Amino acid sequence: MTETAPRVEVASRTPFDFRLALRYFRRRLGELVDATDGDAYRRLLLIDGSHALVQVRAADEPRVPGVSVELLAGDAASLPAAAGAILHALGLDDDLDQMHSAFRNDAVLTSLFRRLRGLRLVKTQSAFEALVWAIIGQQINLTFAFRLKSALVQSFGESLLFEGQTYWAFPQPERLAGADEASLAVTGLGRRKAATLVSIARAVAKGQLDLEALATIDRGEAVARLIAIPGVGPWTAHYTLLRGLGDFGAFPASDLGLRMAAGRLYCAGEPASLSRMRQLAEEWDDWRGYVAFYLWNSPAENAT
DNA sequence: ATCCAGGCTCCTG
DNA sequence: CAGGAGCATGGA
Fold it and tell me: How far is the CA of A191 from the C1' of C8 (A)?
């Protein structure tokens, strides 16, 4: 079975709590791409065009924080790349100590960091994945957004059957580029989002749009380029930079969930106003996006 | 039917 | 640049 699966240990900076990452992946039932199985996270990656199904668990030795990455299926040669992808996605190199000390005089954030100690910003496997997910999630409730994502994944993503379970990779732009807008709209996306997704997928597939390269330029310029795409606004642009490219200074200030969570911490439960959000973002400075991820993971029932 | 949901666009002051 | 009116598309 899996006893002989190639595997590698990947170390993390401290603090790190794998259970919080797992909880994030489990936040909605029916998630196909980021799969969980008990205490394990499983994901089908495409590495150099071939399938690599990885299983991630907390490191065996709890005194050394990190994860073990096992290759359940695929070419053993792809294990290092897979481990690197997981390291990045789980944010194991993010310097939480630096963030903690930057806000050591901020009682609210210090309490939030303590409550979610070891939580790291979960990144997507590509900027394209974050952008597509953001577009799907615009102005609809999250439950419905997850359903739409599943439909998209099952139509355009590659899959692998392993031990009776089907695992899905997030759709490649090349595949989505060939989609028929009309039939995409039928799945509930709506004409506008369908058109936006297909046009982005085509631009990426043709090499006209290099989303990963946005990480190498000025944030303002990156946002401007994303917003130039019809159907992409500031919220989508910032979400993409944050979750897709790990730009901790990106911040979707208008996000409803953020405004609610910030409201619980700062505004007596009322959703924080946009101007308040901007003010908080100023305080949070280069860590504003990372703080946002903490807020998203700070549900009402956990509020102090 | 009515209001809401992890917005976007266009139009005003 | 801030604030507001439509707009789209299902859910509860």
Answer: 9
